[in-house]
Design a protein that fits this description.
- The protein starts with a strand and ends with a strand.
- The protein is built from 4 helices and 11 strands.
- It has 2 domains: 84 residues, no CATH class; 107 residues, OmpA-like domain (60s Ribosomal Protein L30, Chain: A, 2-Layer Sandwich).
- Strand 4 and strand 5 form a beta hairpin.
- The strands form 3 sheets. A 4-stranded antiparallel sheet has the order 2-3-6-7, with helices on one face.
- 26% of the residues are buried.
Length: 199
């Protein structure tokens, strides 16, 4: 199997039949949605042909003998229960935005703190990184310090709400790695942020 285009998620089962009326069990692959909801495509080359799958929840026999066909939820759950249970939990990312010049979260971002705590609480050992950023107003060294203050402030707010992290990394990128590219001395609310990654 080769993956093409966007990252595609594929599960393969080696003992079940894609078609309920097949006389012999066939191994088959099913294309899944990516975590962002997009779907790439896979090419399955087998002894009996080549098939391209570009629709989520469609599958093909690994021998390439038939065109992609939908795999219903009941069949998918039965055939891939163990494979799906064994998948690692994917990282989740959050952006918190700040008012200009300081460490005060915007009201919308303050409202996201509980969601971050809830997400972290679903993991057995939380590894979290908190990276502070600024826009390009002011000197670069001052923005580096402000980015760190924002990251520390966000981490402290999360701790007060009950964050229990196995590992917590706090750092600043200042005005480096802008979310929205701007010239120097440009106010941009989307660059005044903290990026939180939960693994």
């Amino acid at each position: 199997m080769n993956t093409l285009g966007k990252l595609s998620f594929v599960v393969v089962v080696f003992v079940m039949a894609l078609s309920g009326c097949a006389s012999k069990p066939k191994s088959y692959a099913v294309l899944l949605e990516s975590p962002d909801g997009s779907t790439g495509r896979i090419v399955v080359k087998g002894s009996r042909g080549e098939q391209v799958v570009s629709t989520a929840r469609h599958g093909v026999p690994l021998d390439g003998s038939s065109a992609p066909a939908p795999v219903d939820d009941a069949r998918f759950a039965k055939d891939f229960r163990e494979a799906m249970a064994a998948r690692p939990v994917l990282p989740e990312h959050f952006l918190l935005y700040f008012e200009s010049g300081g460490t005060e979260l915007t009201p919308e971002s303050a409202g996201m703190l509980d969601k971050i705590i809830e997400t972290a609480g679903k993991r057995s050992a939380v590894d979290m990184s908190v990276i502070g950023h600024t826009d390009t107003l002011g000197k670069a060294d001052m923005n580096e310090a402000l980015g760190l203050k924002r990251a520390i402030a966000a981490a402290e707010l999360l701790k007060k709400k009950g964050l229990n992290a196995h590992a917590l990394t706090i750092e600043s990128h200042g005005e480096r790695n802008l979310l929205v590219k701007t010239p120097d001395e440009t106010p941009e609310p989307r660059n005044r942020r903290v990026e939180i990654s939960i693994r």
